[in-house]
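Researcher: I need the complex structure. Ligand is iron/sulfur cluster. Inputs:
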Amino acid sequence: MQNQKRVFSGARPTGRQHIGNYLGAIKNYVALQESYQCLYCIVDVHALTTLEETKSLQDNIREMVLDWLAAGLDPEKSIIFVQSHVPQVMELHTYLSMVTPLGWLLRVPTFKEKARMQPQNVNYGLVGYPVLMTADIILYKADIVPVGEDQLPHLELAREIVRRFNGIFGDIFPEPEARLTETPLVVGLNGVQKMGKSYGNQVELAHTPEETRQRIMNAVTDPARIHKTDPGHPEVCSVFRLHGLFARAEETARLEEDCRKGAIGCVQCKRHLAEEVNTALTPLRQRRAELAAKPEIVKNVLGDGARRAGLIAARTMKEVREKMNLA
Ligand code: SF4
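Model: Output:
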């Protein structure tokens, strides 16, 4: 039974999702839709702040939706939509930008970081990113935003913008609350960075079992292990971390002991992990293949999502324009 509280979460259109996305966000999305009215938004406009070109945008959106649906997001329960399909968000962004001091935005650490990473393209959108993010959330009067600890400052800024806007124009928006989510940090198969497509260290949900096996067999393990009888250090091994996320606790404990004693070789250990991952993902992959065979499904889900989100947005914007004396 759904209560009245509304959850909003946005994700950039990164294309086919990997097991880091699945364990870190999508599983949580699926759980939340049982208790709240959830809006899950693919934030294509945000992606433009860092994209050099947009050729792959539509494919990325489609692949992402396929993964979400295959993982259990239910379009009957959740509103799944694309940010730009509800254009009122751009209007609200403009109004919010009039009450947001520039100093607040220039201090945001992610702005400084992005500006460092793409000095050739420090665009206006990068500075205004938190304002658009606030518009995304409050256009739907969301009460709860699931976030990782690293995103807490963004949400605090969104709350400050809401307080300022409400202070000037009257109580329109609820202050969105952060719902801290326990997101396991999934380290990629190179054992260095967080799992991510840009690092090429990922296992995608849509990989075939054979692709999955090959990727895991190439994963970086404990560099101190030369021979299979050398005592290992599972705490530095990307394969062991993934075992911890897919295998039963007692199996992981046994593996840890065997690794430390040099009683198991890395090849055997990786084969075992590949089996675990493939077994866990088989039902999801079957559903995904069925969904991908019906091209109209993604179109229909996003069309219906935009319509439902648009109804909420239209109500909000009517109220906003009235309070701002624009109507
Ligand atoms: Fe990693 Fe397994 Fe090799 Fe130990 S045995 S270093 S856990 S791959």
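Model: Summary of the prediction. Strands lie at 6-11, 37-42, 79-82, 144-147, 177-180.
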